[in-house]
Design a protein that fits this description.
The protein is α+β, with helices and mostly antiparallel strands and 99 residues long. It is 22% helix and 10% strand. It has one domain. Helix 1 packs across helix 2. Bound molecules: zinc ion (ZN).
C-alpha cells in the first residue's frame, strides 16, 4: 500500500465578493463615478460600527452622506486626511445633483 495522497485541490483562495460594476464596496449603486486607486485604500465605519472598505474617492463620497460615520483608525493618516478633506467639500449624496 503505497498510494500517493491526493493532491490538495488547487484553491487560489476564495474569490473576493465582487462589487456591482467592478467598483469598490463603498461605491453607491447610484454613484456613476469610477474608483480612484486601490479598492481597499480605506475603511469607513458607520455609526452602527459597520465597516465598508473602499477607494479614497468613494470613501469620501460615502462619508459625506453618512451621518456619524468616520474613517477607520487603522487607515493611514495620509489617506484619512485625504478622505476627510474631500468629504468636507462634497454635499451628501453628491451624485444626486450630478457631482
Ligand atoms: Zn471606489
Amino acid at each position: 500500500m503505497n498510494q500517493p495522497l491526493p493532491h490538495p485541490s488547487a484553491h487560489e483562495g476564495a474569490a473576493p465578493p465582487t462589487a456591482p460594476h467592478g467598483r469598490c464596496p463603498a461605491a453607491a449603486a447610484k454613484d456613476p463615478t469610477p474608483c480612484e486607486g486601490p479598492h481597499d485604500a480605506a475603511t469607513i465605519v458607520d455609526r452602527n460600527g459597520r465597516e465598508v472598505a473602499g477607494c479614497v474617492q468613494h470613501c469620501a463620497r460615502l462619508l459625506a452622506g453618512l451621518e456619524g460615520a468616520r474613517v477607520h483608525p487603522f487607515v493611514p493618516a495620509q489617506h484619512a486626511l485625504d478622505i476627510y478633506s474631500r468629504a468636507r467639500e462634497l454635499p451628501p449624496f453628491a451624485w444626486e445633483i450630478g457631482r
